[in-house]
Amino acid sequence: MASDYKWKPIEDLPADWPSLTDSELSAIRQVYADLKALDPAATAVWEEQSRREWAIETGRIEDVYRWDRGTTETLMAKGIFADLIPRKGNDLEPEQIAAIIQNQREVLDGLFDFVKGERQLSKSYIHELHQALLKNIPTYKVTDEKGIVTDQALEKGVYKKWPNSVRTTDGGRHEYCPPEHVESEMDRLIEWHRRHMMEGVAPEVEGAWLHHRFTQIHPYPDGNGRVARALASLVLIKERLFPLVVRTEKRLEYWDALRAVDLGDLSRLIEFIRQQHGQALVEFSQVVEPKGPDADQVTSVDAAIKALRLDLISRGQLEPRDWSKAISNSAALHRYCCGRLNTLGSQLTEALGQHFSTTEERIIVPDRAPSDRVNYTAGFLFADAGFPKILFFAATAGEKYRGVATYLATYCKSASDFTAIAQPFLVTYAESQDVQIDRFSKWVESAILNGLQRWRASLKA
Question: What is the pTM of this model?
Answer without folding.
Answer: 0.89
